[in-house]
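TEACHING EXERCISE
Course module: macromolecular assemblies
Task: Read the component lines below, then compare them to the predicted structure of the full complex.
Student: A.B.
Group: 4
Components provided:
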Amino acid sequence: MILTGVWREGTTLPREIELASRFDVSRASIREALSLLKAKGLIASKQKAGTHVRARFDWNMLDEELLNWTLSALPAQEFAKQILEVRRIVEPEACAICAVRGTDEDFARIERAYRGMDAAGMDRVAYAEPDLQFHRGILIATGNDFLIAFGATVAAALRMSFDLSSTNPGAPRKSLPYHRAVLDEIWARNPDGARQAMHKLMDLTEGNIITAMARQKKKDAEDENVRTRRTR
Amino acid sequence: MILTGVWREGTTLPREIELASRFDVSRASIREALSLLKAKGLIASKQKAGTHVRARFDWNMLDEELLNWTLSALPAQEFAKQILEVRRIVEPEACAICAVRGTDEDFARIERAYRGMDAAGMDRVAYAEPDLQFHRGILIATGNDFLIAFGATVAAALRMSFDLSSTNPGAPRKSLPYHRAVLDEIWARNPDGARQAMHKLMDLTEGNIITAMARQKKKDAEDENVRTRRTR
DNA sequence: ATAGAAAATATGTCTGACATAATAATTCTT
DNA sequence: AAGAATTATTATGTCAGACATATTTTCTAT
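Instructor-supplied answer key:
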């Protein structure tokens, strides 16, 4: 209800006892749920005054759970663009740092992920996990704890891409040579090349998402069309 | 204890009842505390199996609270470099986006922050808040929820810089013309100029932090020297 | 030695009570 | 009648003790 804006910024939510009876659980369980939302910055509470929804600015959108909830609660359209914009900023630079600072062990881990993607063939489901490991491996190789934490955002983004790719099963596989290029530049310890290769991968990803969303939109429209004709 | 590595990755922490008696609070309070750490990715728990410390990779380091705890629990040295590295990646790009996409209202808010910094004069304490608002204003102007969430990291970084600047009270004020330059480029809606201006501001910040840490280190060494001479 | 059944146990949930602090209502003063 | 000080109210915060549930460990039978 907070994510979809039913309870918008500043709204005071029902008191704990009422929430407990509404969801038919104990007050203790409600408090555990609220403390989770509190930790992620969605709400804040004061004694007697009650619990209110905090400003969106204070929400920790880079949190993986919150991000997943958001993606399943709202149309992905807008978020997809935003996530991609941040990935475009962060991942190419992380990739350049990785090429300079990463150890051979780091690179081997990324290589293993690449092999996993290759082995998955056209199997979308099997392709997803090593794909994530590939991108995460690059972030880990930077040795920067904040870039590593950014992996949570990438994970959510890939999960979203995966969901969207259901209408176009062959799409993921097309990214394989782009990943290979990134890997080669990293092994060559060539930061500029690595940055550029990752940039191209981001371009491809963006293209895939845009066409997938367009297809989705078209499909929704057709379904809607069928539905209205039937009800007429 | 988790942050300082007393309880390292994989460690199973004492059971809730024992923690409750150890800290002399009820089990309910312990559970609230644990659920906070759970939400931030530090720990995970399973029935009967207990609660264990998760891998560092899973910690949500971009969370403001966690970041503040970390900065107060560990020597800032290493973290300062890492935070700066990420800020260098994100803020100049955010600044460029801001210059293109921001509204005049957004710019006015940033301008107000700038005026607040100017009005603070040599007062370090009064300078800190508008400084944060300045950087946050740029992120907000991008309209990207993930860049906005990055403001939490910037906030922690600035707080750290503030603490370090105690040995050099005049340092913050020196950043004022650099902020002015950023603001001018934004008003001019010049993304490349804005990117570059922010980059220069980051250079200055890095210089300040490095000298401040060196000074701190020297001071620590002197104190240590005095201490050992006394005990001899 | 192995597979399956039973016991043990740590987290998860429930109930009901009291503590505390912020707000709202009331009383008193000027 | 306006404002300050006091009292009452109330929603979150904390406590205690109990039971439920899901793993793990131990025991038993094959």
